Every structure is written in structure tokens, then in C-alpha cells.
Amino acid sequence: MNAINKEPERHEIEALLPWHAAGTLSRRDADRVEQALAGDRELARRYDLVREELAETIHLNETLGAPSARAMEKLFAAIDAEEARAPRRQRSFDFGSRVSEFLSSLAPRTLAWSATAAAVAIVLQAVVIAAVVVKEPGAPSGPSLASAPSDGSFAVVRFAPQATANDITNFLGAYKATLVEGPLNMGGQLYRIRLSETKLPKDEVGKIVRQMQSESKVVGFIAARD
Amino acid sequence: MQSTSDEVLIGRIANGDRLAMQVLYARYHVRVFRFVVRMVRDDSTAEDLISEVFLDVWRQTGRFEGRSTVSTWLLAIARFKALSALRRRPDEELDEETASAIEDPADDPGTALEKRDKSAIIRKCLMGLSAEHREVVDLVYYHEKSVEEVAEIVGIPENTVKTRMFYARKRLAELLKSEGIERGWP
Known about the structure:
- The structure holds two protein chains of two kinds.
- By secondary structure, chain A is of the alpha+beta class.
- Chain A has helices at 7-22, 27-39, 41-62, 69-85, 95-106, 109-112, 116-134, 165-174, 202-213; strands spanning 153-159, 178-181, 191-196, 219-225.
- Chain A has a four-stranded antiparallel beta sheet, covered by helices on one side.
- The termini of chain A are far apart.
- Chain B has helices spanning 6-14, 18-40, 43-60, 70-88, 91-102, 109-115, 118-127, 131-142, 147-154, 158-178.
- In chain B, 75% of the residues lie in helices and 0% in strands.
- In chain B, 35% of the residues are buried.
- Chains A and B meet through helix 1, helix 3 and helix 4 of A and helix 2, helix 3, helix 7, helix 8 and helix 10 of B.
């Protein structure tokens, strides 16, 4: 028998059995489990126990019935009452929630793991991003990052109107970019982002900018800038 | 014919489409109800809670960013509502419910036959798990949630999800043993 002889690995595989039985593992993990099951009779026996539990859990839940029509009537009565009181507006631009959601997403873990200087930079970036997402035509200027660094490679970006604070944060994180200055005094809500702390060759900057430009959900306009 | 995706429905609901809300409700109300009723153990309370869950969806669709599936989002809201309802409930009521859920019906002749039925015993023992263990077992086995999704719904790290599931299964094995079913594990 070709059982898994490394106990921690076996334990790890065994912990995944319930998800393997439910079919919710990634392809990679599912392959790992399948491989282990094929060579380990005891693990395969334990997998049968998992499948038994799964079948009975489904059976048990299916016997729980369904809610009566009362629940739906109550829901739609509440919706009608709300609409009568205050008709719904388009909510794609919910200022308060977007700002507070973004700021709460930073704390406490993000801040706790950052060095103080980095944390300050993140908070400044957060405030600016918050201003980006709440910006409406004609609205007064939001906060700005005044002391922009000069070392490294940079680009100027206008974020897409539909981009949320999380979209922008994830976008910057994915490219390891930092929002360093803005809004710039160039009109059109432009922001300067640092692509790298070191000066990159021009063609490399161009490549990054082209990649960023393809992220149309977040980026409205972008251009390399010294 | 392909049905409208959940994300499209959410977009329509955000724009006040009442029909889209009905479709979403039809799609998920039973599963959400079953998840909630397993937590609060009361049909009437569970019905009230699912109305509240979907009302929250109506109010907050603008905040759904598609990082998780709609069903995961719904279950996370439902869980929060159920826990809030449980906190409002007097302790004595909870104790009685817990006791009735794990009560051994061995003295009841009507259940003697059922006790010989292994499937029925497993289901009885599943009912006897703690709320924390029931929750993770249901999410994994019935609601088909991945490790990451369970972590998101319950608000715990992914490794804790795996550990909790392991201990839930271990506890189930102990309950089965006390009912005369020895599984040779753990």
C-alpha cells in the first residue's frame, strides 16, 4: 500500500475531505486529494464516512421545509412601505457608505501590520481615494497629497467614474503602485501614482501603463509621466 | 435557456426593479430559511428573519461589490440576523431548545425502530451538534460553501474553518458512538 506516510500531509489532506465530497475544492486541491485517496486505503475509508455525513446533512436540511407565503408578503409589504415613504434614488454613488467602507477596510489589520510611516502614507492615500470616489462635478476640492516624492517612475491617472474605493485600492495593490499626488492642477481629476520606487526603463513604464489602461473598470485615462 | 445571473439581478434591484427582487427571493429564500431555521430552531422566527434579510438586500444592493457570490453574501447577512435574534432570546428558552434537540428518545417505543436505522441516527446526532458545529457542517455539506466562503460568512480565518469542521466531525463521531455506532474514526 502506498499510504501517505508524512502525517502532517495526511492530516492536511484529511481536513479537505468534506470539501472534496461537496465538490468545492479548487482543481489543484481536488487533484491532490484524489491522488492521496488512490494510494491510501484508510483515507479512502474515512472519505466514505464523510460522504455518509454529507448525504445525511442534505437529507436533514431537505426535511426542514420552506417558509410560508407570509415571509414574502411581509417582505414586499415592507418594500412597498419604504418606497412610499422615500422613493429610491439611483444608488450607484453612495458617498457615505463608500467612504466609511473603505476606511473601515483599512483598520485595524492593515494599519497594525504597517510600519508607522507606511501607515501614514496609507491613511493619506485612503483619504485621497475617498475623495476620488465621492467626487461629483462641481463639488469642492477634496484633500490632497501635497509633498509628492520625486524618486521613481510615475504615471498620471484618472479613475473611472464607476470605480469604487476597493477597486482603486485593489488596482494599486495589484501593480504595487502608490497614489502620491493629487488631484493635480490639470483639470479632470488627475492623480499621480508611483509605479516603482526606482527609475524604470521607458519601455517598461510603457508596458505597465498599457496594462493599466486595459483595466477599464478602474482606469478612465492613464499616461506615463516623469 | 440560461437564467439571469445573480449579479445582473443585483444590478436591477439596485435600480429599484421589484420583479428582480422577486426572482432573487424565489431563487434563494428556501436555502436561506433552512440555514436560519437550523440556527434559531423556530420556523416563525426564521420566516421573520428571512424577510429582514431580503429587505436588507433591497436596501443595500449598492454595496454589493461582487467579491463573493450572492448566496455567500445572503448567508452572511442571514447569519448576522439570526445571531442578533438569538441574543435577544431569553437564556431559559435556549436551554430548553438545546435540551430537546439532544434529548435521547430511547424510551419512546415509536423510535425504537428508527434507532436501528443508521441514517436516522446520523441525522439525530447532526441535530445534537452545538450551534457552532452545526453551522459549519451545514455550510460545507448543504450550502456547498468553499473554505474561503465559510471563512467569509462566519468571519473566521480559513485555517479555523478547517479545524472547526474537523472538530465538528469528531464530535459527531462521539455522539454516534454513544448511540452504538462505532466508525473507527477518529
